[in-house]
């Protein structure tokens, strides 16, 4: 029996690129293999993919913010197509469902259809975040996890979990194994944006933050092994 029946897995855009930028085919194909292995264990998987390897709205200071956010959402669409391709190459049925309509290459997100595809064993790749500017793919991941009744949100990122301080800036910072939503908010721990963590708290959605750059970690997390930091309450 798998540890979880249905998981929403958020994949960091930066973790798809070399040095955080662009698309690394090597990384993508090893990710495809891991996701195929995770799916074999019997867990239904919906993925929300980020776009930070191509463009983050808040960082594109020269552009109008809303315009930049639409560009950021389209960046997630490019990543989603790449993921769909590597999953198909790994022999897994996969499908892109998008919050913004990009006719000809992706289906619009529709909750009831998404639930049917998941029940059929397809891995869903949910592109373009929430479809609205001024949000993040972390918030989209919480939203979709709740809509699709996932038991847990896995946030795959570039660090091993949630620390007292950003471990990139302070390598001596200590990692937490478990945190309540309140602790994340009170301590101002920057691993997820406030909107995302607040929405998760309101609906009691557990969030597991773990390092997706470490090979095998996705399968470990899906199998219920202890990795990363669990946020709950
Ligand atoms: N307290 C903290 N614990 C862990 N990571 C933190 C913390 N504060 C800031 N970070 C930073 O947050 C980053 C992950 O957040 P985010 O920008 O959402 O990345 P991504 O969506 O690409 O995974 C980590 O790479 C880490 O450098
Ligand atoms: O619902 C959403 C999700 C994403 N974005 C834009 O898409 C970019 C890429 O997403 P994110 O930064 O969350 O990617 P990640 O950090 O996970 O790679 C964001 O910076 C935003 O500009 C948005 O406008 N609305």
UniProtKB/TrEMBL annotation:
Residue numbers binding ATP: 10-13, 52, 56, 157, 163, 166
- GO molecular-function terms, A-Z: ATP binding; UMP kinase activity
In terms of CDD domains, this protein maps to: AAK_UMPK-PyrH-Ec
Q: What cellular component GO annotations does this protein have?
A: cytoplasm
Q: Domain Aspartate/glutamate/uridylate kinase, which positions?
A: 6-211
Keywords of the record, alphabetical order, are: Allosteric enzyme, ATP-binding, Cytoplasm, Kinase, Nucleotide-binding, Pyrimidine biosynthesis, Transferase
| Stored SUPFAM superfamilies | Carbamate kinase-like
Pathway as given in its UniProt record: Pyrimidine metabolism; CTP biosynthesis via de novo pathway; UDP from UMP (UMPK route): step 1/1
What HAMAP family does its record include?
PyrH_B
List the protein's name. Uridylate kinase
Which organism's genome codes for this protein? Thermosulfurimonas marina
